[in-house]
Amino acid sequence: MSKFKVVVTDHEYESMEIERQEMSKIDVDFYDSYQCKTEDEVIDATKDADGVIVQYAKITPRVIDHLKKCKVISTYSIGVDKIDIKSATAKNICVANVPDYCVDEVSDHAVLLMLAIARKLTLLNGKVKSGVWDYKVSKPIYRIKGKKLGLIGFGKIPKLVAKKAQSFGMKVYAYDPYITAEEMSKYDVSRMEFDDIIQTVDFVSIHVPLLPSTKEMFNEAAFKKMKKTSYLINAARGPVVDEKALIEALQNKEIAGAALDVVYKEPISKDNLLVKMDNVIITPHVAWYSEESAEALQRTTAQQVVQVLEGYYPKNLVNRELKGKLNLKER
């Protein structure tokens, strides 16, 4: 019997060879065949695990309560809203994420969505493929240069979005309660408050994590404040947007359109009205993906489990209040 047991609750990767390579560095039994869908399935799979790797499964307070000896929960993601951090911290379980594996991909995708919706790319592509060769079906389209982009959040990804948007001649603004105007000015970005920014800009791009304070921050009141010619871009988390309010805003022409890589419930239902709207672009939560980012995500997620089981704090510790409280060393 090995010294440790590590369980992957669920995953959608074609191969787990990267994780096996990392786990081979320690004495571990590695279980990667689970595809847990329910809370009870997660409990049965993980209750005696020393380390847990998760992709989409919910690590609830009840799941954590059943963990007998777990030292680390590592997630294939930047966001950690699927894990009850408070419960994990109370049991001295390290939670680790991978905050920087796809900053280039997501920033590229956010700009891509902005350009595609502004230039009505999917509408025109669909028309041409259906036999209509007429630019007038896209009217009106406006010049990108000189337009105003508002970033909601100003972490690593939106900083790159700002740089890329500026190359098109756009003026960039940002709202982030934790970042000063002085810091933003280093990136040639102007700081504004939330209500001011959504009333001012032509494109609003969301880059905040899903927290109680950000859930449905784009609601009916927010959409009513936006310009009728403005577009919403979301490559962050679906529930940051009140989807019912978004649909109503689009139907009532309170905003011009939306380009989304994430939705409230994934995968999106074919009956969702957003799917049927010509002024909405939807991609299947793919902004994070490239071959390079996928490999980095898998490897780093596994490495952080190994780090903890070897007696070190993980590289990307989410619940940093555990620093100094556990019998773990810094690398």
Automatic annotation (TrEMBL):
Alphabetical keyword list: NAD, Oxidoreductase
Keyword Metal-binding assigned: no
A GO MF label: transcription corepressor activity
Top-level taxon in the UniProt lineage: Bacteria
D-isomer specific 2-hydroxyacid dehydrogenase catalytic domain residues: 7-319
InterPro entries according to UniProt: CtBP, D-iso_2-hydroxyacid_DH_PdxB, D-isomer_2_OHA_DH_cat_dom, D-isomer_DH_CS, D-isomer_DH_NAD-bd, NAD(P)-bd_dom_sf
Pfam families named in the record: 2-Hacid_dh (PF00389), 2-Hacid_dh_C (PF02826)
Residue stretches making up the D-isomer specific 2-hydroxyacid dehydrogenase NAD-binding domain: 112-287
Similarity field: Belongs to the D-isomer specific 2-hydroxyacid dehydrogenase family.
Protein name: C-terminal binding protein
Organism name: Acidilutibacter cellobiosedens
